[in-house]
Amino acid sequence: MALVVYWYDFICFGIVGTALFGALYVLWRREGAGQCQDKKTMYESLLVGRPDSEFYAGVSTPRGHVSSSQLWSSCWRGLHPGYLLGIRFVSFSVLCGFSAWDILDYDASVFVYYTEWTFTLVIVYFAIGTIVSAYGCFLYYSNKLPSDNGERGEFVKRDVEESISTYTVTSKAKGSMGTIKLQSHYDQEAIQERAGFWGYLMQILYQTCAGAIVLTDIVFWVIIVPFLSIAHLKVNLLMGCLHTLNAVFLLLDTSVNSLPFPWFRVSYFVLWTCCYVIFQWVIHAMGFSWWPYPFLELSTPRAPLWYCSLAVMHIPCYGLYSLLVKAKNSIFPILFPHAFVRC
């Protein structure tokens, strides 16, 4: 075995273990099933849509809930969802091109680096975002949309993933609405299940990418470039783009999208990094001989200090992106009061 464990390495194991289980606990408390006290209705944030306001007036949604329309609609009033689709598709295509360039130059061994993990995660986010935005454009133009008599805005605000009663619903408003067909109900229910799953996954990817790209780019430009010499991470056009474009495209997406950014989902970012560190431990235990990042090496007595520093860095890295989102929602409504819609 290439991995030799010293007494101080158990401190590193403890740091990662504490972060891992702490993040899981936060997600269990904040992201898990919550019970509404008013209606005694069980539902999960993102996984299950909030009750329809028409039948459950006054029922609050879980913290961090996102509606499916937020996945593809813009925070700019009147901006066609096709613009967000275009941003996500172009971002996905360009990042895929640079990832392919990286693999062709250095082969698949590049995936031992956290940079590649994060870059791939951003690509997956934009891939799902492109699909969801395309679906949103389909809904926008679908014949199922309300007519353009002022009801379209209400549709966009409505949760596509909201729960619908499993019984046949009959409208009582002046007898103008008939009985909704059962087949239509099943079709809508299937759409909502897909929207709920993609909404949950897309929101996780978005907030995980946000923290991960800040950590990756800061470590690269502030620590690795000035002080460390790593063959694969030397400064050139490719490495410069890999540690710049990920942030540029995600910030561009943030400036247009209407996704929320609750603080408790920093836990996904912590889990992401913990998984990478555990992956490094596993491959070294299986015989991998060198460390992609010297500060992760366990054979030095300073390892606990490095691990502790990296753990603490997650807070300001995620906090920095959170501040950018808060600034968008605080400054833009003042500068563009008639064009910006607060998320």
Automatic annotation (TrEMBL):
PANTHER family reported in the protein's UniProt record: OS02G0130600 PROTEIN-RELATED (PTHR12242), PROTEIN ROLLING PROTEIN (PTHR12242:SF6)
Source organism of the structure: Ilex paraguariensis (yerba mate)
Full protein name: Uncharacterized protein
Keyword Disulfide bond attached: no
TM regions (residue ranges): 6-28, 82-101, 121-142, 204-231, 237-256, 268-291, 303-324
UniProt key word Transmembrane: yes
Keywords: Membrane, Transmembrane, Transmembrane helix
